[in-house]
Amino acid sequence: MPASTSGLSLERLAVRVLLRLQAEPGRYTARSLARELGETPNRVNRVILAIEEEAGVQREGAYGAITVGGTERGV
Length: 75
Prior knowledge:
This protein is mostly helical. The chain contains 3 helices and 2 strands, in the order αααββ.
């Protein structure tokens, strides 16, 4: 399994993922975002699942484009 090439901690990766998804909603899939950030799809997907727990995430199908919701959950 390939390792992360960016060397980012999960926290810093989460910030980058969230900023990209908010700046360009519906543009990225987990795989395309991972490729652009120099990360593995598994790490990016793990971050997206954590965001889903907190803020909500909509996907177009199982592997489709991702949009971050604006409502908080679990408060």
